[in-house]
Amino acid sequence: MRPIAIVPTLLTLGNAVCGFISIAIASQIPLKADEPATSVYIGLSAVFILLAMVFDVLDGYAARLAHCTSEFGAQLDSLCDAISFGAAPAFLLWRMSQDVGRPFIPQAVAVIAALYVICTVLRLARFNLEHAAEGAKRFIGLPSPAAAGCVASLALLRCDLPLLWTVVDKGLMRGIVGISAPLAALVVAVLMVSAFPYPHYTRQMLRSRKQFPVLVRVVLTLSLIALTLEVSFFLLFWAYALNGPLRYAILRLRRGNKPLPDPTPGLD
Prior knowledge:
There is one protein chain. The protein is mostly helical. It has one domain (about 5-255): CDP-alcohol phosphotransferase transmembrane (TM) domain (Four Helix Bundle (Hemerythrin (Met), subunit A), Up-down Bundle). Helices cover about 70% and strands about 0% of the residues. It has nine helices and two strands. It has helices spanning about 5-25, 35-65, 70-95, 105-130, 145-160, 170-190, 200-205, 210-230, 230-255, and strands at about 140, 195-200. The chain has a two-stranded antiparallel sheet with strand order 1-2.
C-alpha cells in the first residue's frame, strides 16, 4: 500500500467522528417533545452533521494541496460519508419522529430512514465507480453531504433556537417539521440516486482563478448565515437540492421534444 497522507486522513476520520457524535447525541433525545432537553439534543445532533461537512471539504482540499490523493483516501472518505451523511441524518430523522402519537407514523418514518441510508450507500458506491472523471464540474445525483444538510437544516428548525422571525409559533414549527421532515428525507433520498446534474460549488470556489468574485460570494453567504442562522441553512441546502430537478424542468420546457445532452459524470 502507498504511504498514507496523515493530515487528510485525520480530517477524513474527523468526519466519521462527527457523524458518530451526532448519532450518540440523537440517541439521547427524550421521547416527549415538550421536554426542554429535546430541543438541545436535536440541535446538537444537527450541528455535528454540519461540522462533518466541514471536515469532508477540508480533507479533499488538503489532499489535493499536498498532491497525495490516493485510492485509499477515496475509499476511506466514502466509508466516513456513509456514517456522517447516511446513518447520522437517518437516525436523527427517526428519533425526531418517536413522539408522534398517531399509529403507523413511527413505523413509516423508520422505513423512510432505512431507505435514506440505502440511497446514500448506493450514491457513494456509484461515485466510487465514476471518480475517475477528475476534471468534472458537476455531480450526478444530489451529493450525500447536501442531502444530509437538508435533513439537518429541518432539525435546526425543529429545535428551539432563538428565531429572528419570532412571528412563527415554536409549537407550530415543531408540528410542521414533524410532518414534512420524513417526506423531505424521502425526496432527497430519491434525488441522491437520480441522474440530475448538480454543480460542484466547492471545487469551483477553490480552483477559481477569479479570487475576488469568489471572496464576495463567500462573504455574502456567511453574512446570510450569521443574520438568519437556522433559516439560512434551510434555504441554502434546499435551494441546492431542488436546483437539479428545476434546472432539468426548465431545460425541458425550452428544448421541447429535443433530447437533452447526457450529463457529465461528477465527483462527490
